[in-house]
Amino acid sequence: MAKAKRNSKTERYPTYSINLDEQGMFTLCFELGNESQCFTSFHPPSMDVRYKRNIVPALSNRKQSRSEKPWDKGTYSITKMKTKAETEAAFSERLKENKLSVILDGEKLQGRFAIHREETGWHIYKYKDKYAREEDPLSMELQRSVNRWHISKEEIESHKIGKQKQASKKDKEPTEPEEEITPLLTLDGKKFHFQFYRQLAGERLVCMINEASKAPFVMKEARSNQWKIITPVPDDVAEQEKQLATHARKLLAKAAENQ
């Protein structure tokens, strides 16, 4: 009986599948009649509404290699589309508009997802619904869509110029009391706790910051003395990014001195 139910569902709705190859690349494919629309990504879609996944359009009608293993499979639908053919046609048309939403009914993925093309490329992310859930930010799902948080070359240069001006005024300005370097930091009444993890998910160094509300924030050392937040955070926390990065560097320096 279960098999008949499954066949009936795939007759009404088009299917999707996600496979994982030996290099750690995920391939997400949506059935479109006799063809398919595929995307590749280093990570599968997240069930956590806070995170986006970068995806790259791939060749349609690609053949699954023997090294690939199934990660998820199921059917997809689009609101107000009553037949399989209508759903596939709507998917194709809305994909051309660079913006669509689909409802996935799979073994791992459930609920509505958005697929958008933005300035930083294509992304897939979860809508907030009854299926959404939070993920462990220290799991292998750490990699996020981080392009929007990357610092530009112009910002780096302007920051260097600003530092030079500050250095020239150093003797004229009164010195501030030295900051106490501890894993706990209070900024504007909010408390942060710093923890460090090395070689996590292939990253050079990751700094985990827990706010008093237990919300996790992750920072990454992209280059020497350059730290950036790589997970979505409230605006008031984003404004404190430089202060958090400065404290993280001081903590590492203190740890190195004590070794």
Molecular structure report:
There is one protein chain. The chain has about 260 residues and is α+β, with helices and mostly antiparallel strands. Helices cover about 25% and strands about 35% of the residues. The chain contains five helices and 13 strands. The protein has helices at about 1-10, 85-95, 155-170, 235-240, 240-259, and strands at about 15-20, 25-30, 35-40, 50-60, 70-75, 100-105, 110-120, 120-125, 185, 190-200, 205-210, 215-225, 225-230. The strands form two sheets. The chain has an eight-stranded antiparallel β-barrel with strand order 1-2-3-4-8-7-6-5. Strands 9-10-11-12-13 form a five-stranded antiparallel β-sheet, with helices on one face. A hairpin with a 3-residue loop joins strand 6 and strand 7 (about 110-120). The longest helix is centred in the last third of the chain and has 18 residues, at about 240-259. The chain starts with a helix and ends with a helix. Mean pLDDT is about 80; it is low at about 1-5 and about 140-155.
